[in-house]
Design goal:
The chain has 303 residues and is mostly beta strands. The chain has one helix at residues 260-273, and strands at 3-10, 13-21, 30-35, 43-46, 55-56, 62-67, 71-78, 88-94, 104-107, 125-132, 136-140, 146-147, 155-163, 170-177, 193-194, 202-210, 217-225, 231-235, 237-241, 249-258, 294-299.
Length: 303
């Protein structure tokens, strides 16, 4: 089985997130919805009575989302068969505030190409230190693996630092430590999180961007856990977890990229092109060649 994780930003309001369709011949993937890391206090997900919290098992399912303040949703698309895909179309509709009549806007957040940094928007780099079992401390920079597919090994701790022009921007992180009594470490903006020499690998990691410039950037990550395919994540706040709850993290790669130019321009162009559609019209079929994408449609009143 494979899975895809993405983040969907939210403004203050009340929404319904609908599972529209999953064009696959091997069974519709399951969709799991929860607040993005760092949004737990301001975003809540409400499932229908009697159903598992945050689970949309098939097209036609929906959840209600309440955002007390701006935050985000973490959406995980998980295949249900070995050969199953992770393609799904979701529609996010507002239930509060003023909504323009008609129109939907597509936000294809599953695979948005990173924008090239503008001269006026310097992108900070990352300095990442990981303590790897039997290897000791390993230091890497942007978009380089600690351990990873070529040389997997349990990672026991991390220290992450922004370097370069990081004024108005901070990166905070916490790790889930395995072994007896293992738990999430406190949120940290610097320093080492984890253990050394105790054979207690990490089972998860959370990262979030905070500060006045946080909305201008995203974290792009790949996380590899023993016995699983690599998870690819992107968002202002991300979370990578062992699917079994016990398998160690054996690879991690991180990068900070500009967010606003890459995400806003396609959304605005699609809004203009689709103003004649009504919110009740079915979404167009997704070509099979686009498998692996998560497509989130927004009602036209959303920004």
């Amino acid at each position: 089985m494979t899975e895809r994780v993405t983040s969907v930003p939210l403004e203050t309001g009340l929404y319904v997130l609908r599972y529209v369709q999953a064009p696959t011949s091997s069974g519709a993937p399951h969709v799991f919805v929860r607040p993005s890391p760092g949004s737990d206090d301001v975003v809540s997900v409400i499932s229908p009575p009697g159903e598992r919290q945050g689970l949309m098992p098939a097209p036609g399912a929906c959840v209600v989302v309440r955002a007390e303040r701006a935050g985000g949703l973490q959406v995980t698309i998980r295949s249900v068969a070995a050969a199953g895909g992770t393609e799904a179309e979701l529609r996010l509709e507002t239930l509060s505030g003023e909504v323009q009549s008609g129109g939907v806007a597509q936000s294809d957040v599953g695979r948005v190409a990173p924008a090239q940094p503008a001269p006026s928007l310097p992108v900070p780099r990352l300095d990442v230190l990981g303590h790897v079992s039997r290897r000791g401390d390993v230091r890497v920079v942007d978009d380089q693996w600690i351990a990873g597919p070529a040389s997997p090994a349990p990672i026991e701790g991390l220290a992450i630092q922004l370097v370069g022009d990081a004024a108005g921007l901070s990166l905070e992180y916490q790790v889930q430590i395995g072994g007896p009594g293992g738990a999430w470490s406190p949120w940290m903006a610097s320093g080492y999180a984890g253990t050394k020499g105790q054979a207690r690998p990490l089972l998860g990691v959370r990262l979030r961007l905070v500060g006045a410039r946080a909305s201008q950037f995203q974290i792009e990550a790949e996380a590899l856990f023993l016995g699983a395919t690599a998870q690819r994540l992107k968002g202002q706040a991300i979370e990578a977890l062992s699917g079994s709850g016990v398998d160690p993290m054996v690879g991690l790669k991180l990068l900070v990229i500009p967010a606003a130019p890459a995400v806003r321009a396609p959304i605005e162009a699609q809004r203009s092109a689709q103003q004649r559609l009504t919110a009740t019209q079915p979404a167009a079929p997704v070509p099979a060649a686009r498998a692996g994408r998560v497509r989130v449609f927004r009602s036209s009143g959303l920004r």
